[in-house]
Amino acid sequence: MAEEVNAYEPVIGLEVHAELQTKSKMFCGCAVVDSVTAEPNTFVCPVCVGFPGVLPVVNEKAVEFAMKVGLALNCQIAEVNVFARKNYFYPDLPKCYQISQYELPLAVNGWMTIETPDGERRIDVRRVHLEEDTGKLFHVDGHSLVDFNRSGVPLLEIVSEPDMHSVEEVKAYAAKLRAILKYLGVNSGDMEKGVIRFEANVSVRPAGTTELRTRTEVKNLNSFRALVRSVEYEIERQSRTYAEGGTVDQETLGWDEARGATLSQRSKEQAHDYRYFPEPDLPPLEISREWVEQIRAGLPELPDAKRARFVRDFGLSRYDASVLVAERNVAGYFEQSVELAMGAPRHHPSPVVPKTISNWITGELFGLMNQAGIEIEAMKVTPERLVELIGMVARGEINWNTGKIVLAEMFSSGESAPTIVQAQGLAQVSDEAAIAETVKRAIADNPGQVEQYLAGKETVAKWLMGQVMRAHGGKANPQVVQSLLDEALAGLKK
């Protein structure tokens, strides 16, 4: 059965809903607030709760943000696009219709590339369009409450073509799109607050064929974990269904995280079920070429371009550069650190190089941040102090292991490396005479191990080095220890 299941190829497309970080809502003047922390129903007005007789007004900043995203995704920006009413009934939709876009969206025919084990892959983007968000439902003690603070918040829907064929590609696409939105400054990327939500359209077909079979849509996925697990589950479920001779129904599914399974919500709607028609209260939105070029000129450096520059200018590997640019604030922290190191006076150049800075950030700092559950912008270790610490290691003032200990203390206390080293007596011992005496004593105190070394067991040398380092409390310069120990052991072989 496993072989039969593996005979099917997944075909996956994503619809991504991203809230735009504007100050006011899409069609009214109400402030956009954190719907998680704000008091329910305190940032609402007759427009966003659908009172009769009110008229919407388009938020110009939301249009600019949408254009930024469209251009970043290599889309064509439509000179004329039209808002449409999407009609359906649900408790969180007070007007019983949502203002969206249908036949004439803001941007079409885009693409982006993702990294895969086999190299780069292009994923086409069908459309990018503006709409308004709905309210938020809370289910308590057998009844439901509605918070309309989120109702009317500008929402961008980004629809890919069904170009993805594995969960790895799905995650790579979703992660890169999130990074682009954060780089553009149009979305916080704070997924636990629901500012980015995914809908996955999944089908499978016999491997080697090009047919498109019945698809299911898994809605309201607000984490990478939920996205990956739900797509994995649907691929397995559909493949097994076909392998057993069954059929897959076209339906809308929810994801039950606790059960690790998709659940049927309703049969999948077609476009005509929503009875789209042009929004009568809003004229067509005209976008001039001059406006498009003005927005294009203001685009920031995006992840792909930044990665290429890090590889070219700083000598980083493509992998290291990709890790750094995945988050805009991490990339900025790295660049500030490099600028500080490279900006040292010529008469006193810094021994710190970009590759070393990258290693400390992606290794030790990432480990500390993961343990603490914080992002780099909330960290106490400034770029200046990180470069200062790395410089102390590079100059031999402390060794690498001590540097890790010092960094952990800097992370928790915010103190500088020199202050911590002095207060805790962590300065590296590089006195050759003192280390040579310790080497001599280690050899004299361990005749059995020395005999094993002389008999050809080379690994004993590492054990002896450990004894010397331990005698100095781990603070001896390892390069000096290695050199003096090698010299002493070589003398015994003569």
Write a structural description:
This protein is 41% helix and 20% strand. It has 494 residues and is α+β, with helices and mostly antiparallel strands. It has 3 domains: 2-297, no CATH class; 303-424, no CATH class; 432-493, Arc Repressor Mutant, subunit A, CATH 1.10.10. The strands form 4 sheets. A 9-stranded mixed beta sheet has the order 2-6-7-10-1-11-12-13-14. It has a 3-stranded antiparallel beta sheet with strand order 5-4-15, with no helix packed on it. α8 (328-342) packs across α10 (383-394), α13 crosses α15 (460-471) and α13 (432-445) crosses α16 (478-493). The longest helix has 20 residues, at 224-243. It is elongated and about 95 Å long. The model has no long low-confidence stretch (mean pLDDT 92).
